[in-house]
Amino acid sequence: MSLRVVDNPEPHTPHKRNPGFPLDLDWVNNVRMNRSALERRAGSIGARRTVKKDYQLAWLLKAITLIDLTTLNSDDTDGRVTRLCAKARHPLRTDILDKLDIPGLRILPGAVCVYHSFVKTAVTALEGTGIPVAAVSTAFPHGLAPLETKLKEIELSVADGAREIDIVIERGMVLRGDWQALYDQVKAFRKACGDAHIKTILGTGELATQTNIAKASLVCMMAGADFIKTSTGKEKVNANLVTSLTMIRMIRWFSEETGIEIGYKPAGGIATAGDALKYMALMKEELGTRYLQPHLFRFGASSLLTDIERQLEHGLTGHYAADYRQPMV
Length: 329
Fold this sequence. Notes:
Layout: H1 25-29, H2 35-44, H3 53-64, E1 67-70, H4 78-89, H5 94-100, E2 111-114, H6 119-125, E3 133-136, H7 147-159, E4 164-168, H8 171-176, H9 179-193, E5 197-201, H10 210-222, E6 227-229, H11 241-258, E7 263-265, H12 273-287, E8 299-301, H13 304-317
Parallel strand pairs: 1-2, 1-8, 2-3, 3-4, 4-5, 5-6, 6-7
Helix pairs in contact: 2-11, 3-13, 7-9, 9-10, 10-11, 11-12
């Protein structure tokens, strides 16, 4: 079979980076989110919009290019990270690629995401692929360390070759409504990142309300964030469609006011191909097809690729493979 409905995106399509803007507290204080309306809208995704057959396979191939292939475990080793990078180099089995008949189509994940200790290992393992290494930073996952320590961690990861830095904000600043402190800290993180792109992790499951999430999103974007991200994956509540809708509507509002497009990264609990398709449909409907590119949308996931590979094989053969046929690490 031949899939011609998937484009061939290059990683990091050039676009204007967020230069940062002055903190506008009037704008922040005027933000209000209607949770009931958000829940109704989020509940319609997937119920109304589905893709079938060849189109579904094409969407799943696109989803692979949007994954930040991640390992953030306390028992990570250089060997595990090297194996993950090998999977990033060849995310699909050769027999599946042959049956899809997509010669020349670039199917690689958006990035490989690891702890700082493994940045050098990942950079070496991915050499020549163009796949960037993302490092979680700033006392991930809690964010509670001295500012000097967090800035140094960013600088060391960039020096080791990380091209993206996933920082975590201090959730207490949001809960106290200390927007100036949050703005100043994220701005300092952005400066420490230099040319590396900065993703700000909000820890949305710990921010209490959708209005808090919206305000935190806006402040981080004003401070220069290239991406806003839901979660560390370590909270009790991680990414969901309601929170995603809140955040991407703030992205849309920010773009309308500033002309700057900010990326979005849901993370934590996105484990199935069906989940991925719902998030992609939400992005397409709310922000447009252009946002379904790695420089504007990523999944933070560790097991999503396995299920996508199983679904692709099912679409080609009519049979579901056992998980061990698509080993990750």
